[in-house]
Amino acid sequence: MLDKTHKPTWTSFEEATKADWDAVMEYEEAYNAALPDRILDAIRSLDEDWTPYPVNRYQHSLQAATRAYEDGADEELVVAALIHDTGDILSPYNHGELSAAMMKPYVSERTHWILKHHCVFQGYYYNHHLGGDRNARDKYRDSPYWEDCRYFCHEYDQKAFDPDYPTKPLEFFEPMLRRVLSKGEGHMELNETSEG
């Protein structure tokens, strides 16, 4: 049980002992166990009152996940469709990279790549209207995940703005999110070595 009454006395990492780090890890395990709840709150925060889109980003996220689910996508990809725009909250101009970084310890390389690059692939549908290159995604043609990302954007993301689409509620996806987040590698820096 975490001793919440004892405050550490070290002031830098190099002063901390093994016992100190054991206490830190115990705290972090408890804190990290609540990650699904924080991500669910982040998804709910996309439920803004006004939007220039036909549906807001919360409804869009639910609809993208519903489309992936109805298409028979694996659970990891359904969850990716659900959370793909949560990075918009803190980093709207590179939200794909933020969403991908958040999910990296929990998803395959393929799903991580799709999340990271979905913004560039979405640009195919609107960049040319804004003075950009709609084919910017083609610079990634050599990736083994190019077609997967194109499909994700075409079938789940760019279509998910239909106010009449029968969209499943967040509660439907919550168990999937919790299962995907239960498969993580933990602290990724602990898996790094000095070799290679």
Automatic annotation (TrEMBL):
This is HD domain-containing protein. It comes from Ruegeria conchae. Residues 57-128 form the HD domain. It holds the Pfam family HD. SUPFAM superfamilies: HD-domain/PDEase-like (SSF109604). InterPro entries: HD_domain, OP_Dioxygenase.
